Prior knowledge:
The protein is mostly helical. It is built from eleven helices and no strands.
Amino acid sequence: MDKILLDYLHHQIIPKYKSLDEAHQIEHVEQVIHDALKIARDYHVNLDMVYVIACFHDLGLLIDRKIHHIIGGEMLVSDQMIQSYFNSEEIHLMKEAIEDHRASNENPPRSIYGKIIAEADRNLDPLTIFKRTIQFGLSHYGQLTIDEHLERAYTHINEKYGPNGYLKLWLNTEQNQAGLMKIHMLLNNKSQLINILQQIYDEIEK
Length: 206
């Protein structure tokens, strides 16, 4: 990637994630970048575009969580630096990919770029999922007791990642399939999963 564009992304775009909740900090976007590029190597795509999409994918959370995927696409389209490096067709594809990345999206992404970023954003490592769930709860539901936090986390994990959860995988990546299977196994033993969530909660609250 062009060094000027790369410096712009790392000094002007990625640092904005510092203003988000603990589950969407710089560590998250860097992981999405890493996983997206890893997945993209199996497809005939523009890696610079994949990199940019990953950088912008959750920026809309700065404005409104419910429509952050729409806002993020608009942020990319209106970014003058992005406009100077990519043509209108490429920008349109990147905008659509950001719009299509959310886990609750019932329709498949409109392009391979959307599928790549959606898959990378899943990051179905169980402990990472559990930690982000607890972090989100602490950031948004500070009034809950410890037991209520743990129950909320378990319910969310089951509703999103369970056998009947709303999360969908659009590409058959071995890493995410294996992670989802592990989560399903843990959901079958609620007391064990609650104990794991308790340990994560205690570690965060130290």
